[in-house]
Design brief:
Blueprint: E1 5-10, E2 30-35, E3 41-53, E4 56-62, E5 69-73, E6 79-82, E7 89-93, E8 103-104, E9 111-116, E10 124-132, E11 139-145, E12 149-155, E13 162-171, E14 174-176, E15 183-191, E16 194-212, E17 218-224, E18 229-232, E19 244-259, H1 260-264, E20 271-279, E21 284-295
Antiparallel strand pairs: 1-21, 2-3, 2-13, 3-4, 4-5, 5-6, 6-7, 8-9, 9-10, 10-11, 11-12, 12-13, 13-14, 15-16, 16-19, 17-18, 17-20, 20-21
């Protein structure tokens, strides 16, 4: 007897299957940041891998700290660098809270320690820093988005704090381009019999005003290849007519988890599908695709 096993294949890289990455290490990944006052730009790049070293693969990371390092991700997403003298892993950046709170953050402009904030901002994680021996230098805080990377860094200077916001990036097959009105995209990840859909707006250092005509802030549609709507997020929901206006600088995201049974019913249907996502407070809309195959 044949056994049908539906398999979900997403058009985005399946980073979620390995756990979220706070700074995706893949050759060619590049992040460009702009300081909001002076316009100064900085970049972080991931170079070619060193190769397997006792089962470990390190990538050349430039621009992230004060000198280039061979870096890899730990199981918990923390960044480890290769001590080239001993061949051992050393902690570069920790994204998990420890019992002692603060952990060493080497290769910064001065001696520093960091710790994650107590509460996450959805899929974003804030790192707080403290410095020793330098009053007018050092990192104050950073914000990381899962599977995107660092989206801003605030540094101390003799003139006061300086904020570097993500302006553009290339992360795997995803490109974030600089737009004064913000860059919007849709992410989709498979989670067993569910889809996790994220609508993400990245504004960099530019403030963006979102004006919502009602309490409904977003809409998500799933269509088949013929363009027919199979599922609409707003169906069956009630919204008030109260208008609202918010200002966003840096990032704004909305996440929904969708059951495949709610879309297709009890039996999955093979084929190619499109997810349309939009934020209703501005002209932001994008699509992402996925396919369902059957293996016998």
């Amino acid at each position: 007897m044949k056994s049908l096993i539906p398999v979900l294949l997403l058009s985005m890289p399946l980073l979620a299957a390995q756990g979220p990455s706070m700074l995706p290490l893949e050759t060619g990944n590049t992040w460009i940041y702009r300081e909001s006052t002076t316009g100064e730009t900085r970049s972080i790049t991931v170079g070619a891998p060193l190769g397997m070293l006792d089962g470990r693969t390190f990538y050349r990371l430039r621009g992230y700290v004060e000198e280039p390092l061979w870096v890899r991700e730990a199981q918990d997403g923390s960044l480890l660098y290769l001590d080239e003298e001993t061949g051992e892993d050393r902690l570069l950046t920790s994204f998990t809270r420890t019992e002692g709170g603060w952990t060493n953050a080497p290769f910064r402009v001065c001696e520093q320690e960091s710790q994650p904030a107590k509460e996450r901002r959805g899929r974003a994680l804030e790192l707080q820093y403290r410095a020793f021996g330098c009053a007018d230098a050092g990192i104050l805080e950073e914000l990381y988005e899962e599977n995107i990377g660092m989206t801003w860094r605030i540094e101390q200077s003799i003139a006061g704090p300086r904020a570097f916001y993500l302006e553009s990036a290339r992360i795997g097959r995803m490109v974030i381009a600089p737009l004064s009105s913000g860059r919007f995209h849709v992410e989709v990840f498979g989670m067993g019999d569910k889809l996790r859909i994220t609508l993400r707006l990245l504004t960099g250092g530019y403030p963006v005003t979102l004006r919502f005509p009602s309490s409904q802030r977003h809409e998500i549609l799933i269509r088949n290849r013929e363009g027919e709507v199979l599922w609409r997020w707003s169906d069956g929901r009630m919204f008030t007519q109260a208008a609202e206006e918010i200002s966003v600088t840096g990032h704004y995201s909305i996440e929904e988890t969708v059951s495949l049974e709610d879309v297709f019913g009890p039996v999955l249907k093979t084929g190619e599908y499109v997810i349309e996502g939009s934020i209703l407070g501005g002209a932001y809309a994008a699509t992402s695709g996925f396919s369902i195959y059957q293996f016998f």
